[in-house]
Write a structure and sequence with these properties.
heterodimer, A: alpha/beta, D-Maltodextrin-Binding Protein, domain 2, eleven-stranded mixed sheet, globular, B: 432 residues, mainly alpha, two-stranded antiparallel sheet
Chain lengths: 357, 432
């Protein structure tokens, strides 16, 4: 009898151990953004489910997915990727489909499929944030106040270097908007050869003043160093530098380009069930609202909006810093993922050629 | 001695146990050879597994892309041929045939298969590599695959008028065979037009040839610069008394031991327009605050940083060759009436050539494939071909094109290596 109890106890401990030892690996973009996810998602998830979350970073988490899945050696369970990458990877069969029925409903009972913003739920992806490419300036180094996207391209009025992301995406749209194309027509214009020429012609006008950046953490640094006077950037990174690090950086919302970041599960993820559990947990109304108190990215659920409060310093109201705040949306463009899935190769080829000229 | 000699043919030499000597020798040697082979077997296996196999696989991708012919289910590994009907039509009709109703019917049947396998993205991506904008045509058509009805040609043209584009049909024909050299064409800024002949791509798309030649020129420039800077240093190191030269050697090696990234970012601190060099020049009044020098995010930044980083690779082989050169040769030349320049040119310099060859080859080959430094300090016009290879590996995910670019780079280096061997001789190389 005693022996049996002892055996039972050992077996139970073994089970408990196994449960505790379970862990998942989540890949994201690093810096302030990963920190916001660790605080809002990872820690409460581990506290609730006892599943440990390993956080790893990449310049763009979409890249290792293809390599890992094709090599048949997947180590990532969940990755945080951009919209066009999520669609493309899904189309190439590199992602697990996600059952939208498993996502929790909003507190008032609205099903998840209606609670998420349009486009936020894809076959293989669930959005967690709405972020935006904006441009920011260092108020210490700019004389006057830039207010429009055209000011970014006006080196006569605001002399100095400009920081831009080294990628055709969002660059060409901004160039067209600065050239006077209304946000609603940008993708129609960009779909024509003449439109692409027009965008590059606009970029030509500031080419000698451009400093290129690639990682999201670079623009705040370039602006703070005075290496550039204005730079495009992910809005959350500027917010973080301005509020948490007290840099004199200002965001110009005119001509901002909105995009989603979405959670995906690579095909053959080692802990698929736990990964799905993590996604369902992290994208509920409260968690998404929580994340917004760590970085100024908008939650992808409508019901989270009302719950967004103050920044983690306890005094900064988050609402006006959100890309989705009404005042910031007067001239905003929503990234057209289908356009970029299709044209990414062609336009980046042209962009690379333009760079090398 | 015996009648064999009398016949003019030598007697067969045999060993003590009667075996012919030649055979016995061969068996003893082959035994030794086999033993030696077993000794190098671990190294051979290591090289095959970590070097030959992955690089071979990557190079294979440069002319083999089965995105439009084969679908592999990632979970189960089951491989299913796709686009079979269309391929049958291509096989039955020569290149340049106007796509008929029959062809569109084959396409429609293939779309149903693509839809079932969830493979339209894969097939579309393959076509999109060569004809931009075609990817969504496949995903759209496959979504509606079950609703497509005869006449199929009109059904497809209703979805998208580009289904009649002769370029699209030419690309589909090329892609219906997994083996293709089109990625090499793309890597040389070439393309095929609708009738299949090769032509240059549109001027505003040309980038790779420019970058290959820029990589070559900058690598030569960097090699020359490291030689000009490294030769006097190596000479100084080789001629100083040992206790001083050891100290100086540490100064050469110290940066060599420092992380590449640290050295590159230190150059960024020094060179940027608000950096140390510019600040000092402005502080001394040599430069106006408005006209700070742009020394980074251009070719100049790439050249400066790479020259510094690769300098030890020139200095060390030179030093190892100069150290054992006997100073009495030069003295002898001088005593026989040579000027110091002649003594250097005819006596000292020729003895250092093996070191120059080794250093130059090392620096050049490293420079040709350099990635991180140009990526960080090169800006737009300081990019090298390796940066574009990385772009296609990481961002556009067009691995076949990346592989073709890499294969061309590798081929180019091998040709230069061969030239070097012909002109100077690889036996002349001395690394230490």
């Amino acid at each position: 009898m005693k022996l049996k109890t002892a055996l039972m106890a050992t077996a139970l401990t073994g089970v408990a151990f196994a449960a505790q030892a379970q862990e998942i690996t989540v890949m994201s973009w690093g810096g302030a953004y990963t920190k916001s996810q660790v605080e809002a998602y990872h820690k409460p998830f581990t506290a609730t489910t006892n599943i440990k979350v390993n956080s790893v970073d990449a310049d763009n988490p979409a890249t290792p997915i293809k390599a890992q899945v094709e090599a048949g050696n997947v180590s990532i369970d969940v990755a945080d990727v951009e919209f066009s990458d999520a669609v493309r990877l899904c189309d190439e069969g590199l992602l697990e489909p996600i059952d939208h029925a498993m996502l929790p409903a909003a507190p008032d009972g609205t099903p998840a499929t209606e609670d998420f913003i349009e486009g936020a739920l894809q076959d293989c992806a669930v959005a967690n944030i709405v972020w935006s490419t904006v441009y920011a300036y260092n108020s210490k180094n700019v004389s006057g106040t830039p207010t429009t996207i055209a000011d970014f391209f006006d080196t006569a009025k605001f002399p100095g270097k400009r920081g831009l992301r080294k990628s055709a995406k969002s660059l060409l749209e901004m160039a067209l908007m600065a050239d006077g194309v209304p946000a609603g027509e940008v993708y129609d214009v960009l779909d024509t050869d003449a439109g692409v020429d027009r965008a590059f012609a606009k970029l030509d006008s500031i080419k000698s003043d451009i400093v290129w950046w690639e990682a999201g953490a670079q623009p705040p640094q370039l602006l703070a160093d005075g290496e550039v006077v204005m730079s495009t950037a992910y809005n959350g990174r500027i917010f973080n530098a301005a509020v948490a690090e007290n840099q004199p950086l200002e965001v110009v919302w005119d001509g901002q380009i909105l995009d989603f970041d979405l959670f995906v599960v690579p095909k053959g993820a080692p802990n698929k069930d736990a990964a799905m559990q993590f996604i369902a947990f992290s994208t509920d109304t409260q968690r998404l609202a929580d994340q917004a108190s760590w970085i100024s990215y908008g939650p992808a659920r409508k019901s989270s909006g009302a719950l967004v409060g103050k920044y983690s310093d306890g005094k900064t109201e988050m609402a006006p810093h959100m890309p989705t705040a009404a005042a910031n949306l007067t001239n905003a463009l929503v990234n057209n993922f289908e356009f970029w899935v299709d044209k990414d190769a062609e336009l980046n080829e042209r962009f690379n050629a333009w760079l090398a000229q | 001695m015996t009648d064999a000699t009398a016949n003019g043919a030598p007697a067969k030499l045999t060993t003590a146990d009667g075996k012919p000597l030649k055979a016995a020798l061969a068996s003893a040697q082959s035994h030794a050879r086999r033993r030696a082979f077993f000794l190098v077997l671990p190294l051979l296996a290591f090289i095959v597994i970590t070097f030959v196999a992955p690089i071979g696989q990557m190079l294979h991708r440069s002319f083999h892309n089965d995105g439009f012919t084969m679908h592999e289910d990632i979970g189960s590994g089951v491989r299913t041929p796709i686009m079979t009907n269309l391929k049958a039509w291509f096989d039955a009709n020569p290149a340049g045939t106007e796509p008929t109703e029959e062809a569109f019917a084959a396409l429609a049947a293939d779309m149903v298969v693509l839809r079932e396998l969830k493979a339209p993205g894969q097939a579309g991506t393959r076509i999109n590599y060569e004809l931009s904008g075609s990817r969504s045509m496949f995903t759209k058509a496959a979504r509606k695959a079950n609703d497509l009805e005869a006449p199929f040609k009109d059904a497809f043209l209703d979805l998208d008028k580009d289904w009649n584009n002769p370029d699209l049909w030419r690309v589909m024909r090329d892609a219906s065979s997994a083996y293709t050299f089109n990625f090499y064409l793309a890597a040389l800024d070439l393309t095929r037009n609708a009738d299949g002949s090769i032509e240059q791509v549109n001027e505003n798309r040309q980038v790779y040839v420019t970058l290959f030649s820029r990589t070559l020129l900058l690598s030569i420039l960097i090699t020359v610069l490291t030689f000009m800077l490294g030769y006097p240093i190596a000479h100084l190191l080789a001629t100083l008394p040992l206790r001083y030269s050891n100290l100086l050697m540490i100064l050469v090696l110290l940066p060599f031991w420092t992380s590449l990234l640290v050295r590159t970012t230190s150059w960024m601190v020094l060179l940027q327009s608000q950096g140390v060099v510019n600040d000092s020049l402005v502080g001394m009044g040599l430069l106006d605050d408005e006209n700070r020098l742009q020394m980074m995010y251009n070719q100049m930044g790439t050249v400066i940083a790479m020259t510094h980083i690769l300098l030890p690779f020139m200095v060390l082989p030179l030093y190892s060759v100069m150290r054992p050169i006997n100073p009495s040769y030069v003295r002898a030349a001088r005593s026989l009436g040579a000027t110091s320049w002649t003594a250097f040119r005819r006596i000292y310099f020729p003895q250092t050539v093996p070191g120059i060859g080794a250093g130059a080859l090392l620096v050049f080959i490293l420079a040709v494939g350099y990635y991180i430094t140009p990526a960080l300090v090169g800006g737009a016009d300081g990019q090298l071909i390796s940066n574009l290879i990385a772009f296609h590996m990481q961002k556009s995910l067009n691995w076949s094109l990346a592989a073709a670019l890499a294969a061309l780079l590798l081929g180019g280096i091998l040709i230069l290596y061969w030239l070097y061997d012909r002109l100077i001789g690889i036996d002349n190389l001395k690394l230490g």
